[in-house]
Fold:
Amino acid sequence: MRKPYSISMIALLSFILVACGKGGDGKAVEGESGKSAAEPLKMVEFVTTQDGSPLIIKPELFDTPAAKEFATTGKNPYIGNKEAIEKGKKLFQLYSCTQCHGGDAQGQTGPSLHGPNYKYAKNATNKGMFETIWHGTNGGMGAKGKGLMDPTDPNNGLTPDEVLKIIAWIRTHGTTTGNE
Amino acid sequence: MEMSKIKVALGVALGMTVAMPMAAMAAPDQEAAIADPNNWAHPRRDHTNQAYSTLTQINKGNVKNLKYAWTFATGVNRGHEGSPLVINGVMYVHTAFPNNVYALDLNDNQKIIWSYFPKQDPSVQAVLCCDNVSRGLGFGDGKIFLQQNDGMLVALDAKTGAKVWEVRNTDPKVGATNTNAPHVIKDKVLTGCSGAEFGVRCFIAAYNIKDGSLVWKAYSTGPDSEVLIGPDFNKANPHYSALTTYEDVNGGNKQGGSFKALPKEKLKYPETDLGVKTWLKPQAVKDGWQHGGGSVWGWWPYDPKTNLVFYGTGNPSVWNPDVRPGDNKWSMTIFARDVDTGIAKWGYQMTPHDEWDYDGINEVILIDKGGKRLAWHHDRNGFLYTFERDTGTLVAVEKVHPFVNWATHVDMKSGIPHKDPKYSTHQDYNAKGICPAALGTKDQQPAAYSPKTGLVYTPLNHVCMTYEPVESKYVAGQPWVGATLTMFPGPDGVMGGFGAYDPLTNKNVWYNKEKFSAWGGALVTASNLVFYGTLDRWFKALDANSGKELWKMQVGSGVIGNAFTYGHKGKQYVGVLSGVGGWAGVAMNLGLTNPTDALGAAGGYAELTKYNAAPGGGALNVFSL
Structure:
């Protein structure tokens, strides 16, 4: 379990070093490239739902404007976005989340995701729910994040953008948006 | 090539039987235990699966005086299915996950003689589709057999509880688990496989009772050599081995499409390797049969005269029918197999190309009536089937209740159900008003048969559904469902029932409505009493002739276990495990409160929370006069 973290930790560190290097040579502090180089420095600190230990996610996986915004703010821009919600529902079915959480995320063999009382209190925030989906739980749910979901295929699993869409759909069932 | 391999295996098995006649009767202690009417030494009392007891001390006249004799809290929550075993003054009790076992001394205040606490990874619970139940234990050769949820088959010394051997039967890492009771038949212990909601390729397996070595394994899908289908398969009814049973209407597997049953004259048969050929391309995954489901977890009878064991296979994976064109054999099939070799004598698919998750796993009951040797089966799809058990020939097929609407009838000549196009299900289309729901007119709860009345007694679900197949992606070890459904009470306005039927005709004799699905297994005794439990906590005794309720007592939690009886020191006892759960109760165990939620299983069952604390607490309840 520890090994993949340390590898991605090294990757992140070198990314930060490169970014610092870029910033340090006094160039590229404005425009698109400057922006993307600066973002990882401001990334929110993700933690696992299992034990709260640091959760390192490759910055390059946050590859859409919404995912980038989430990575830096912890807010889910897809909340209330009809198109994203529709896609989120499809993804919820595509990965058979329905098997445990029910067709409407109301709970079946796994807990309800409607809130306001969540099995893991942190799921009340979009950052918390993102971490739970990405890295799994101690309650039996496996990690769904890209590279973690399927040990036989590093490209399998949900991208951050897809996780945010699923969360946007899940939030349509509750009274809170998770961005509060 | 593969056929000759089977022949060799068959030859070896036959040779061994001749050379070592003892091999055929390697569990004489089981035979002796079953022969004593005071015992309950097999999951459904004996190999007929009838759950019929000749004990008559409790009768119609005195049943009203039945009182609690003793109870035993299992210390485990959630669904408690199956029943304990009783062998010569010792009762063996199993529990839901983590599948603890207790041996209780009936001669000394039900004191615990030994206990066994399996160490199972808690994550196994996440790959059990419909609650972490166990359906009981097996006995033979001085051993108690436990099939753990995590796939380990364990043999324990019946006297001490010491582990004699264990073997891995299924692998939860790929989503394969177990819920069935191990069935000891002769010198073998048979067990199955669950996981059709995880894209598992399931099987039934026979292990050597002495050391746990694998004797044979028969898959539900794949080539004949792995399904253990030999040249004489379906000899009496070769049309059961037809390549296709339907022709597509309006494109078949798409919205608006449906399937028209072919008459027997138009069938192409017999065909081989149907476990491969009936998974037409393209499937959701390459070679759909490799992840084709066909779970095996029922109650399995055995006929010593023909040496055949009978069982049903579950749904094809995935629940979305559009992405697995073809009949999807041999899911949804009743098989009769030779116990020594595993070779199938006959196989009949009840729901070709399933569109509703009508698992065919429900039990077969062996019945001798009207000079006929019969096999009776109440399928989830809502039909009652009676077969000639030596050949598989259909004797009678009827709807158990007129609300069954996915098919108009079963063509007795071809054996094919005529599907109603109105209830065909397709991707991204929410088909409404389908009866019965996926949990069937009966689910795991086994029926009983009385040779005295000549009737079968079956618990009933009365639930309908909407069913929407959706696109879903297969990932090993993760759920793979492919449909969302909602369930609601059927036209009778209740969710269950309990009825008596004549197995020669499958016509109803009497029928009682139940508020909730009657999810507990039935027991019938020679004094013409029928016992079963309900989800709203009642344990009942009925008059087997009329269905009239003669006695009831409320237990601690809803009943999904099987009623059983035994005798001890001249006294007759009846008992049942309580502990609500299973598919019907699983959502309740998670504290569901919103009755309008579109639940897979819980929608109509939301009111269960008014009758049960959650999660359901497991307990054994024993009654006597």
